[in-house]
Amino acid sequence: MQRYFVYLAYDGTHYHGWQIQPNGISVQECLQKALTTILRIPIAVTGAGRTDTGVHARMMIAHFDFEYPEAPEQLVDSAWLTDKLNRLLPPDISVYKVTPVKPEAHARFDALSRTYHYYVHVGKSPFLRAYSCRLYKTLDFEKMNEAAQTLFDYIDFTSFSKVNTDTKTNNCKIMKAEWVQLSPEQWRFEIKADRFLRNMVRAIVGTLVEVGRGKLTIQGFRDVIEGKNRCCAGESMPGNALFLVDVEYPDDCFLN
What we know:
Number of helices: 5
CATH architecture of the largest domain: 2-Layer Sandwich
Low-confidence stretches: none
Shape: elongated
CATH superfamily of the largest domain: Pseudouridine synthase I, catalytic domain, C-terminal subdomain
Mean pLDDT: 95
CATH class of the largest domain: Alpha Beta
């Protein structure tokens, strides 16, 4: 049985997140149905993570297993399958490539890091509103960046996790966290970690916004993290401004 990685992007506006849901359409469901139709056997896909309802991905990776019954050693033509998927998938899901990997390679558990971007803007803009969160007050981004740097001092981010999840640990290693100005009206929060908790990025951004508004000090931001209480952190920001932009893997996942 040969394993393949699928590199894809999607606009999450009309989906109930990545993961299959009982009462709503998901990106995972669409990809599985497309692969099953093309390859003519039931195909299950596993993603690098779970994006929430309305969240987008410029780069998601998923894996699936498949072999030709009459020629198990034959590999799927990656260019052919990529083209077929893009023809069959809806316009808001796009496949970059399909590539064979080692049998034990795992899209979720082998990922070394994931990177998310969150966009905010000031002022009314008909062109930013779909993929960026409008802020109605001027923020102190210098202070917000100062607060963001304190994230490197911690590994337990219970305060920024959705409650009652099935995760065994709330520990994460954050490798990057900073606000970058894109224009006079728009900023982007860039965060990279080995793993993320459910709702984590949007909760961090919401709490940093409290710092930017002067409602929370740097020490207060630390206190929120150390308190390990989601109720003490800021609001969860809207999902439409959040993008998964990169997932990194070790070289030994791939065929030589």
